[in-house]
Amino acid sequence: MTIRTVRPDHVQHIRPRMHCLKKLEAIVVEMQDPTSGVKGSEQKLNVTTIPHVITGKDIIAWIVNKMKTPTEEANVFGTMLVAYGYIYPLQNHRKLIMCNDNSLYRFQTPYFWPSQKWLAEDTDYAIYLAKRNIRKKGMLEPYEQAHYNHLHKWLNHKWDFIVMQATEQYRAGKERKKPDRVVFDCQERAYWILNRPPRHTHSAMDCGPERLVDPDEDQIISFDQYRRMNVFFQQAIMRSKVKSSVSLGALVKYITTYKTHDPFLAPCLPSNPWQTDIDAYWTLNMRRVDLPTKMRVERWSFSLFELLTDLRGRDDFKIFLKKEFSGENLAFWEAAEELKWGTASSMRTKAETIFKTFLAPGAPRWINIDGRTMGLTVKGLEHPHRYVLDAAQTHVFLLMKKDTFFRYLKSPVYKDIQKKALNPEPQNFSPAQLEQNAQNRSVGIHPIILWKQEEEEKAKAAAASAPVDVKAMMSKIDRKK
Amino acid sequence: MCDQTFVAITFGPCDSCGNPSPLMNIYIKSEAINYCSFCVEMMACRGLQKGESLATLKTESDTLKKKLEEERGKLNDVELHQVAEKIEVLNPLSVKTRRVMKGHTNKVLCMDWCSDKRRLVSSSQDGKVIVWDAFTLNKEHGLALPCTWVMACAYAPSGCAVACGGLDNKCSVIPLSLDKNENLAAKKKSVAMHTNYVSGCTFTNSDMQMLTSSGDGTCALWDVESGQLLQSFHGHTADVLSLDFAPSETGNTFVSGGCDKKANVWDMRSGQNIQSFESHESDINCVKYYPSGDAFASASDDATCRFYDLRADREVSVYKKDSLIFGASSVDFSMSGRLLFAGYNDYTINVWDVLKGTRASILFGHENRVSKVRVSPDGTALCSASWDNTLRIWA
């Protein structure tokens, strides 16, 4: 079922673009300046001589000079001028692009500029097509014929009026001088190519769906809105901020740390799969590899967040924690994550399990957090909410971040994996080899299969580390006897 | 640590009604209190008190706004380009088109990468959603939705489902399968319901929760399994066009940008708007977090991209050029955060040097406006979706 929202007309086809259209128009006006603008000339088109014709080459040269940009960029800019209808091509009039050669163009008259606020109405289009029909004696282009038939059906009630208008305009046109008429016809044709583009072509007049709210409309702010704004401003003022030198320094530090890991800035080893069509880089960095690469291991040392997000790193961290008999913090953190991001229906059971395993006095994996946090958490668990463990989880995370993480980086577990980590050789391929690679791109493993494997492994690990139920064990032993 | 929300008490008994719920940390007459969102609403909507009028509230608002600007200005001791002077200049980039993905028959509006770094999902104006293996150029799944203008699509973190939404005012989740002949549209499940078009959607850290932004001016957090609305976010005064979930250790915030020229940062737990930036001159089309989560960039119809520092609470850089006068529709950072890729309505992609504020490169190739740019999860490639019916992979 589609909900039919009545979409208001907030001049969506104009509003977001007014910003750029105004700047464009200023440039177009400059281009038409008799002394400093683009030089035009008279050109013979069929039998008539048309004034003020410019070549694509000259336009692009003018743009390069004015905006100090390379030719390719000037070409793009020229194409936009054509795509928006400020300049129209004389030959090949359906393709709205700028060609950097002797192709002929003309400036569109301001009457037909896209920034004019009126919409290109169907009625006007019908009149135009009817006029063309008269002139071409029924020989319209296929897409125009399709539009004509369609409008004939939908605007049938107005058809007499349309035909009358068309005939009037046709007669008025005949009374003009031939060059003027040809020029006007070209302009009108260019306007309609822009607003009713033929199939499989693009027009810059295309825009997205109408916006709901008209932001240009003067807003009447009610008193409750002011109250909300004031609440926001007050907390924003009191919010602790950091000096720019500190925060910008941190941003720069981040970039410097990750510089060698960014495939756009440094080559990735053995090679970027998109460049060489060999996916070795992905297979070497899969979730469950025996030996990770040196770059991956280095990344784990950047922050606890990196270490935990990379599940292979988390495994290594767990090995370390097992040796130190302090795995309950990470286990609690993982359980709290599952609660936070899990389904709403599973929350209650998860909260109870977590309470029994980690927080209850005498729990099998009791975590050591300060009294206040413990009190708040236990109280909140009476009415479980997905964020009820937030305070405890943050406390535990900070503990791990400030203490355990650094001990891990200095530990034999980490140093061992650093030594054993792989350092693949950079691959270089000849053009012939690259051709071959492109023919034999590997399919890899589907993420759904990998996900199922992950879930199985997790279930196995959970069963292995679950606290032993003494009663069940005893009854099993009894039965065996 | 990325966001400051962890230090505040965000869950507990409300100071006003006593119910345990997520709390908003606000100030009443300079006193810090914790109210649940319902009590904040009640407080805002109660009738005008003695001595209060629309005019007094307005003057209070203007004074506070000025004070906020002053506070921000006090910590402004250095500019980004000054800090960037010591950084070496980038080597010239050589980025080429590596794949051209043809298959859509109409404008491609949105795309998202899968966590396996090679698959992606794309949606187009004619209602078609395609799941591709971009590496081999195989189309793995194709669905036809009953609505047009599917403006939002997202791949689930597990790789087992996709979400999409648009003019149907809904966002639906579709589980994927290994069987290519299966009719996926039959298993489609509506999760989000808005009162106007859905402009953006993203999964949070799991397949079970989804954030959406809508033309009705709100953002919302949904439980995928039950379709329940977990939290709604009110504060924008016009259509919200884009949102991004923060890549931080605590995962509690997201940023949204809208037609009211504002970019707002929200606390997901309480629904509170914690930071707001209003410096663009036109609609904000896209917002994206910096990889560390301490900053974000925005792209707007005023042809500029801007960079905001969240810890210092201000805009630190504007990326613009005289020759760029067409709106920017989409931005994304490279993996280290040094490069900012921005897709524009003049069919090009400009690559900005985030620190120095200069343009590092410009990518040509599309034949109509670029609607979305996304860097792959491991940073090896950039994918751009365009209104010329194709997607391109650049590396």
UniProtKB/TrEMBL annotation, chain A:
The keyword Protein biosynthesis does not apply. Residues 303-418 form the RGS domain. It comes from the Eukaryota. Keywords: Signal transduction inhibitor. GO terms for molecular function: GTPase activator activity. InterPro entries: DEP_dom (IPR000591), G-protein_gamma-like_dom (IPR015898), RGS (IPR016137), RGS6/7/9/11 (IPR047016), RGS_DHEX (IPR040759). GO terms for cellular component: cytoplasm; neuron projection; plasma membrane. This is Regulator of G-protein signaling 9-like. Signal peptide: none annotated. It comes from Solea senegalensis. Residues 34-109 form the DEP domain. GO terms for biological process: G protein-coupled receptor signaling pathway; intracellular signal transduction; negative regulation of signal transduction; regulation of G protein-coupled receptor signaling pathway. The keyword Secreted does not apply. PROSITE patterns: DEP, RGS.
TrEMBL record, chain B:
Keywords: Repeat, Transducer, WD repeat. Pfam families: WD40_Gbeta. WD repeats lie at residues 101-133, 191-232, 233-276, 277-318, 330-362, 363-395. The keyword Repeat applies. InterPro entries: G-protein_beta_1-5 (IPR016346), WD40_repeat_CS (IPR019775), WD40_rpt (IPR001680). It comes from the Eukaryota. The keyword Repeat applies. One of its GO terms (biological process) is signal transduction. May interact with RGS9; this interaction stabilizes both proteins and increases RGS9 GTPase-activating protein (GAP) activity, hence accelerating the deactivation of D(2) dopamine receptor-mediated signaling. Belongs to the WD repeat G protein beta family. This is Guanine nucleotide-binding subunit beta-5b-like. It comes from Solea senegalensis.
